[in-house]
Specification:
Distance between the termini: 14 Å
Largest sheet: 7 strands, antiparallel
Shape: globular
Structural class: alpha+beta
Strand content: 35-45%
Helix content: 25-40%
Number of helices: 5
Radius of gyration: 17 Å
Amino acid sequence: MSRRDQIKMSATEVAEFLTEQRVINVATMGPKGRPHLAPLWYLPRVDDVDAPRLETWTYGSSQKVANLRRLAEATVLAEDGEQYEQLRGVSMECDVELIDDADETLRIGIDLMHRYTFEDDSVEVPPSLVDVLREQAAKRVGLVFTPTKIVSWDHSKLGGVY
């Protein structure tokens, strides 16, 4: 068995990893052909472990949105680990859907607020906060990342032996 095969995560492990992590790095192609990198909070949509998706929102006037309007593709990276034998990560080549619908963008914003602010899934986002998010959603675009290729690694599977 190759080392690559030994460190590859299963679809279930990829889904669990994406659910645990909090930040993705998104690379889009800039107007001069160079990658444009940006960190983003995200929502893991991993109900179907064989077809994970990620959702987020960002300002409609951002460079990443301008890049995605030209080429709706991105590479997304989530990674973890401080030492080589702890390194884990998932890199995904993705098709990207841009959501210009204000209600759908608001839904993504509410879900993001919930994930990053409220520990308890049963807690509702207060109406006053929804009003603030509605104002923000008017300036934002939703992004849905659907992987066309997933590469993963978990160096802890090597047991400290390289």
